[in-house]
Design brief:
The chain has one domain. It has seven helices and no strands. It is globular, with a radius of gyration of 17 Å. It has 157 residues and is mainly alpha-helical. The longest helix is centred in the first third of the chain and has 37 residues.
């Protein structure tokens, strides 16, 4: 419980700092309305939870043992985010972006989930921040999952 109390203010500030996840939620809200924004928020929250589960399963240890994997993960994630940005710019003049062929919220969840999963910032935060809030005598995996649930909940609110 002490870990969670210490973690909540940190993660609240983290969620409020603009980043790729925030931008995809804003984009989907504008393109598909409030329902699209809620679905995008759910997608980013699930992505955050997946990162926390990966850390609980030992991703941090793997990355520490093999720094090349970490660099590769960052490069792939960065390239994917650039690709999503280019795709958004290219679509900016199409009917899809003007919301003429989209149902409200249709397709908002998956782009947000993918953005959260490929976002290098989310990975860096998960791998470097979550373990710091696991106290002595706590089950590292269970505490990390609980912290991830809290982070996803704050991001989803």
């Amino acid at each position: 419980m002490e870990s969670l109390i210490a973690f909540l203010p940190v993660v609240t500030v983290l969620v409020l700092v603009p980043g790729a996840n925030n931008l995809v939620v804003i984009r989907e809200t504008i393109a598909a309305g409030p329902r699209g924004g809620r679905l995008a928020t759910a997608g980013t929250s699930l992505g955050i939870l997946v990162w926390a589960l990966a850390v609980a399963a030992g991703l941090g240890v793997l990355l520490q043992a093999n720094p090349r994997v970490w660099v590769a993960l960052q490069l792939v994630g960065g390239a994917a985010l650039v690709g999503l940005g280019v795709q958004s710019v290219l679509r900016s003049g199409t009917a899809r972006s003007r919301n003429t062929d989209r149902r409200p919220g249709a397709g908002s969840f998956v782009p947000a989930l993918l953005t959260a999963l490929i976002n290098p910032r989310a990975g860096i935060v998960a791998v470097s921040l979550l373990p710091q809030f696991v106290g002595p005598g706590q089950d590292p995996a269970a505490t990390t999952v609980a912290l991830g649930l809290a982070w996803a909940s704050v991001a989803g609110s």
